[in-house]
Write a structure and sequence with these properties.
2 copies of one chain form a homodimer. Chain A has about 325 residues and is of the alpha/beta class. Chain A has one domain (about 5-310): Rossmann fold, CATH 3.40.50.10680. Chain A contains 13 helices and 14 strands. The first copy, chain A, has helices at about 15-25, 50-60, 75-85, 95-110, 115-125, 150-160, 180-185, 200-210, 215-220, 240-245, 255-260, 280-285, 300-310; strands at about 5-10, 30-35, 40-45, 45-50, 130-135, 140-145, 150, 165-170, 190-195, 225-230, 230, 235, 265-270, 285-290. Chain A has a 7-stranded parallel β-sheet with strand order 5-2-1-9-10-13-14, sandwiched between helices. A 3-stranded antiparallel β-sheet of chain A has the order 7-6-8. In chain A, strands 3-4 form a two-stranded antiparallel ribbon. In chain A, strand 6 (about 140-145) and strand 7 (about 150) form a beta hairpin. In chain A, helix 1 (about 15-25) packs parallel to helix 2 (about 50-60) and helix 4 (about 95-110) packs across helix 5. Chain A is globular and about 60 Å long. The two termini of chain A are about 15 Å apart. In chain A, about 45% of the residues are buried. Chains A, B: InterPro entries: CofD (IPR002882), CofD-like_dom_sf (IPR038136), FbiA/CofD (IPR010115). Chains A, B: It is an enzyme of class 2 (transferase). Chains A, B: Its EC number is 2.7.8.28. Chains A, B: One of its GO terms (molecular function) is LPPG:FO 2-phospho-L-lactate transferase activity. Chains A, B: This is 2-phospho-L-lactate transferase.
């Protein structure tokens, strides 16, 4: 048996780009993309799964590359009318994006699992690869600020990440089982690599690691765990990672990423801009590849995906 | 006490026009608009109330007068994406209209009554008059066709009313109580008139009459019950009324309307085009007013409303 199955762990935007790159170069049967659901929340009676949708839209070619999130060719008529009706307007939902939330929500309420719903809706959008939630049990990320524990999206979107975060927790774990697709992928005999996409370790990857048994399964891995760093040029490309590291009193560097993943990590891909980090990372016993980690175009995504796969001999 | 409160019973489009006319000429405290909810249905996890929304949009000046239904300046992005996701596309929902269904649905699910939800959402749209569902208990109209009992919207929109209807029933009655606003209006000491708007008697008005106690309360009325006929020029202005009358073997005439309402009706306003019906109606002991019942403009609606009110001495 040729071992060539790739298990990718992804958060939203940055992670979704590498996930799309992997999907561009790996056959559907050889790739499982596990997506963080800690960002999910219930709003206006809809179950909204921002990271699942970012990955889905990226793989379907529907993502808005200018805005950096959501669906391209988007309009905002429903949201404007919701505001006119006095409904909460702090979380912006586009008209095309809204269809995803409506379809997912009624199906979940009818008893389908998030895995089943996602398989159905991604298939309809022409996605042949497996986009799989980390768990079918609800996990909800919360951040600790001066105002107390706050639901993730309230802080991330409602507060624009302004409040300092002193801690992060995941409501629902322990007790959240890996989704069937995640459990299967972890147990595959032909598994060749585990890829951690360039997502926020605290907010996007830690929820996946917090799912029951996942950290132990990864610790017992027989294949390389390869991460693409979300740090570029000594800061985070997008989102609050740099701010969170600073609030923890940590340097915004690849050493902090390596420190965070600790012995789960075998190899880290970092950007040319951070070449100075190489010796420190190697001193930790890590494999290091210096490359261009920014993914502006589809070609960047596929090239970076190939570099990751090559490290695992795929 | 001056008796001047008006209780109007309305279905969708035609009824909504007269309801808007009444709202244009009657002070908010002196008008209660009761709306048929038999057309309501659950679709894609949303509770959709077509007649409630037609009346609401007409009163808010948001109705699309070209299309004849829904919200003006409408777009259809969510619906197109729902179809791309493989969801049912037979019931067209606009992006602006969708906001109403989303807001109503989460509020109903959170435990608010349809009366409470409607009061909240109409107030937000600047409507000062009381738009009140006939009942807060679900009533669902079904039609009997060759295919058996069919949910109303499946036949009305899905089948475009093609199948012949041999019977109509209302799931949920008996057992559906009048909404608090309806019960209050029926019991008002200052009630001066009951107005039946030009809506389909079988599909839009009968469900209201079928609510527990309503038919008896109307039979015991001490004020005139005045209807505007939905027949113009020997046919129905819009919708399947003429077709349904023909399928019942009845002439498409004002006599059929009078026969249907029987002794609940005191006065019928009919169109100039149907002047030949006058003697037959008078022979039944009915008051008859011949006027222009088509409402093309806001001025027509207000003029007709004033004519109705004058008949009750208001």
């Amino acid at each position: 048996m040729t071992c060539k199955h790739v298990l990718a762990l992804s958060g939203g935007v940055g992670g979704a780009k590498l996930a799309a790159g992997l999907a561009a170069v790996v056959a559907p049967k050889d790739l499982t993309i596990i997506v963080n659901t800690g960002d999910d929340f219930e709003h206006l009676g809809l179950t909204i799964c921002p990271d699942m949708d970012s990955v889905t839209y990226a793989l379907a070619g529907l993502n808005d590359t200018q805005r950096g999130w959501g669906v391209k060719d988007e309009t905002w008529q429903t949201m404007a009318m919701l505001r006119a009706l006095g409904e909460e307007g702090w979380f912006n939902l586009g008209d095309r994006d809204m269809a995803m939330h409506i379809a997912r929500s009624w199906r979940l309420r009818a008893g389908e699992t998030l895995s089943e719903v996602t398989a159905q809706l991604t298939r309809e959008l022409g996605i042949a690869h497996a986009v799989v939630p980390m768990s079918d049990d609800p996990v909800r990320t919360q951040v600790l600020t001066e105002a107390g524990w706050t639901d993730f999206q309230r802080w991330f979107v409602g507060d624009q990440c302004v409040a300092a975060v002193s801690d992060v927790r995941f409501e629902g774990v322990p007790g959240a089982k890996p989704s069937p697709g995640f459990a299967d992928a972890l147990a595959r005999e032909d598994l060749a690599a585990i890829v951690v996409c360039p997502s926020n370790p605290f907010l996007s990857v830690d929820p996946i690691l917090a799912v029951d048994g996942v950290r132990a399964a990864l610790a017992a891995r027989r294949v390389p765990l390869i991460a693409v760093s979300p740090i570029v040029g000594g800061t985070s490309v997008k989102g609050p990672l740099a701010k969170m590291l600073a609030e923890r009193g940590q340097a915004v560097s690849n050493s902090a990423i390596a420190h965070h993943y600790s012995d789960l990590l075998d190899h880290l891909l970092i950007d040319h801009a951070d070449e100075a980090d190489v010796s420190g990372l190697q001193a930790r016993g890590l494999g290091v590849t210096v490359t261009m980690t920014m993914m502006r175009e589809a070609a960047d995504r596929a090239r970076l995906a190939k570099e990751v796969l090559a490290l695992a001999g795929i």
